[in-house]
Amino acid sequence: MMNMSVVSPFKHTSESRFRFRCHKDIPCFTRCCSNIDIMLTPYDIIVMKKRLGITSEEFLAQYTYVEADQKALYPFVFLRMHNDDIRACPFVTPEGCTIYEDRPANCRYYPIGQGTLKKSLNDNIVDEEFYFFVKEEHCKGFEESAEWDIESWRKDQGVNIYDEMNREWKRILLSRGIPGQRMDEKKQAMFYMACYDMDRFRRFVFESGFLEKFEVEGFVVEQIREDDIELMNFGFRLVKYILMLEETLKLRT
Ligand code: SF4
Ligand code: SF4
User: Which domain holds residue 202?
Assistant: First the structure.
């Protein structure tokens, strides 16, 4: 988990300004890629397994570990660091990140963190996104002179597509706050497969009798046959159904 003492305790917006630059000649280069816990989103996993040319099962087994959140027992996937003194990321080298173009959303945002809250607006409950800074002692980037606002940083780091892909996922995570929402082992297993393990989930949908049990639109069936992103979105539908958040699927009569 993140060391909360390095989180600056202010909520920022996309207009908030800061000075920062990260480059190869900075003395702390790659220091932030060790001794850190990086939570992966379903979209991160799709992008990374594709980059590495392996299946989701292989990726999850080789590069990740799972922890259930304490409140509602939702399973979260983290990047597994090397078991050495500095707990180095498996993708870091002295030259930098070997999967830089496909690095996870949390690595892109760093040294900014992002959160979502539910708030009431005109009698509706809406999601409010906010940002915070992570200021670790070893990070010298804040001493550089390049100026940003959070929006220009997000553009520079290519996070827009990640935010778009993760929006539904974050909504599901916010449901942990619903009183009484607590997963049993069966729901945990389904959540894990439908959100993280796309190749196994695809086999489950097409080979287990699932489509005989649930009514799924024909065009969706065709989309999820090949497309991991569509399958991920379908996984979110299934998760919302099993958590009883929305009636996103219908049983066949
Ligand atoms: S510690 Fe900060 S400045 Fe140094 S490499 Fe990491 S992000 Fe860049
Ligand atoms: S994935 Fe890349 S950027 Fe992220 S911690 Fe690992 S080496 Fe660093």
Answer: 185-251
Asked whether residue 15 falls in the same domain as residue 98, the answer is: yes
Whole-structure pTM value = 0.92
Q: How far is the CA of 46 from the centre of ligand 1 (A)?
A: 26
Residue 31 placed within a domain: yes
Q: Is residue 47 part of a domain?
A: no
Residues shown for the chain = 253
Considering the domain architecture, whether residues 157 and 129 belong to the same structural domain is answered as yes
pLDDT for residue 167: 92
> Do 142 and 86 reside in the same domain of the chain?
yes
Residue 23 lies in a domain: yes
Q: Is 204 touching ligand 1 by the criterion CB < 6 Å?
A: no
Residue where a domain stops, chosen among 110, 145, 174: 174
Residue 26 lies in a domain: yes
Instruction: Decide: 31 in ligand 1 pocket, CB within 6 A.
Output: yes
Task: Tell me, using a 6 A CB cutoff, whether residue 92 lines ligand 1.
Answer: no
DSSP string for residues in 184-234 = -HHHHHHHHHHHH-HHHHHHHHHHSSHHHHEE--HHHHHHHHH-HHHHHHH
Q: How remote is the CA of residue 150 from the centroid of ligand 1, in Å?
A: 17
Q: Which ligand is nearest to the CA of 36?
A: 2
Give the atom of ligand 2 at the shortest distance from the alpha carbon of 30: 8
Candidate of 26, 35, 97, 156 to mutate for ligand 1, largest count of ligand atoms within 8 Å of Cβ: 26
Evaluate: CB of 107 within 6 angstroms of ligand 2: yes
For residue 2, what pLDDT is reported? Answer: 54
Q: How far is CA 101 from the centre of its chain?
A: 16
Say what the pLDDT of residue 226 is: 96
Regions of the chain short of the pLDDT cut 70? 1-9
The whole-number pLDDT of residue 9 equals 62
Class of residue 155 by CB neighbours under 10 A (exposed 0-12, middle 13-18, buried 19+): exposed
